[in-house]
Design a protein that fits this description.
The chain is an alpha+beta fold. It has 11 helices and 15 strands. The protein folds into 3 domains: about 55 residues; about 80 residues, Tyrosine recombinase, N-terminal domain (DNA polymerase, domain 1, Orthogonal Bundle), CATH 1.10.150.130; about 160 residues, Intergrase catalytic core (hpI Integrase, Chain A), CATH 1.10.443.
Length: about 400
């Protein structure tokens, strides 16, 4: 055996040369043998250079399988929501592990990843393929950060294109029609999504104590979230920015006042849910969507690409909203109408009234008619409130 400044090489009984070295108190033996001693010495020189520039990777880490890497990666982020972990665990079980689970992580190449994506594209939609690829890319990114791989094989991968769907903003008549179609008990769900932009999980997790009718304030601190076992439980909002206080317009205050009056004794319990099922249980998204929301969309003709999304929070495109988050940043709150203090402006025009803009030094842009004449800007947005003809006269 001959020695070098770094590592050592020895001649085996077969006549080939094997290299080894010590690093971090452990001896590492090269996985390959070489015909010439110079080749083994060159490999040691390359390893020494990697150690000096901080690019050395423990060769034993690359022996992990993709399945083992996925299990380690799932438990690496304690801040991840249980619902997100449940989705990622299903992706690993259904898509990643059947295709690559048995492979060593150091043997997976970009060509293997591209073949994995192409296989998913033949049986899944573009969004599902991108989500599954995102899980695989995050796994190998974790391996690189842990110094288990030099670089990730998820590079230069061609993904299926996303089809952009055309959606339109719901009008005041659309929102009123949806509220009438879901029934008196669920109509406030539609208006909360339309006027304040609450997510469905935030509406389902809304408790009586979160509504201050006197001040017209609604506080979002809780939501119905899904656990790793696909159970619906109460938990925090989707992010810290989701903790916010929203100003309610007069019309929405009246709607919630009538709804809480119909709750009876439940309105006196601050921990009671504002919305619940027919048996008093908290709302379940799957059941509510199938039994209440989708039939209402079909009854009003708001199906397919014309509807923003099959959830009441998608209705918020019909009106702007801005409020104040708990951290002091701006959050959506409903725009008041100048003609009707209880009304809310709807449509795509979310500009400030001309008077306020003029006081801020911003003049309204003139409108140019087809004949070239410039006229002063005039808002074409009608107020959405009790004075609007589309507003329901009674719940």
């Amino acid at each position: 055996m001959s020695r070098r400044a770094f590592g050592s090489v020895r001649k085996l009984a077969s006549g080939r040369w094997q290299a080894s070295y010590w690093h971090d108190g452990r001896r590492h033996i090269g996985s390959l043998t070489y015909r010439a001693k110079a080749d083994a010495s060159a490999w040691l020189a390359a390893v020494e250079a990697d150690i000096r520039r901080g690019a050395w990777v423990d060769p034993r880490a690359g022996r992990l399988s993709v399945r083992e890497l996925g299990g380690t990666w799932l438990g690496s982020n304690p801040a991840k929501r249980a619902s997100t972990q449940a989705v990622e665990r299903d992706i690993l079980r259904l898509h990643v592990e059947p295709a690559l689970g048995h492979r060593r992580i150091d043997s997976v190449t970009p060509a293997d990843v591209q073949e994995f994506v192409n296989g998913l594209s033949r049986r899944l939609g573009a969004r599902s393929v991108r989500r599954s690829y995102g899980v695989l890319r995050a796994m190998f990114g974790f391996a690189v950060n842990a110094d288990w791989l030099v670089r990730s094989p998820c590079r230069g991968i061609k993904l299926p294109p996303l089809m952009v769907r055309s959606r339109r903003a719901l009008s005041a008549a659309d929102i009123a029609g949806l509220a009438a179609a879901v029934g008196v008990r669920h109509a406030p769900v539609v208006y909360l999504g339309a006027l304040l932009g609450l997510r469905w999980s935030e509406i389902a997790g809304l408790r009586v104590r979160a509504i201050d009718l006197g001040r017209g304030i609604l506080v979002v601190k809780e939501a119905r979230v899904r656990t790793a076992h696909h159970e619906q439980v109460s938990g925090p909002p989707k992010s810290e920015a989701g903790r916010r206080s929203l100003t309610m317009p007069r019309a929405l205050i009246d709607i919630l006042t009538a709804h809480l009056r119909n709750l009876g004794e439940g309105a006196n319990d601050p921990d009671a849910y504002v919305f619940h099922g027919s048996l008093g249980q908290p709302l379940d998204y799957v059941n509510w969507r199938r039994r209440v929301w989708l039939p209402a969309c079909e009854a009003t003709g708001l199906v397919g690409d014309r509807l923003p999304r099959p959830a009441p929070s998608g209705c918020h495109r019909a009106g702007g909203h801005r409020g104040r988050s708990e951290d002091g940043t701006d959050a959506p709150r409903a725009h008041r109408s100048a003609d009707d203090p209880g009304g809310v402006r709807t449509g795509d025009d979310r500009r400030r009234p001309a008077g306020r803009r003029a006081r801020r030094g911003v003049l309204p842009r003139p409108v140019v008619t087809p004949c070239g004449r410039k006229i002063a800007h005039r808002s074409r947005t009608a107020p959405f409130g009790p004075s609007s003809p589309e507003w329901p006269q009674r719940l």
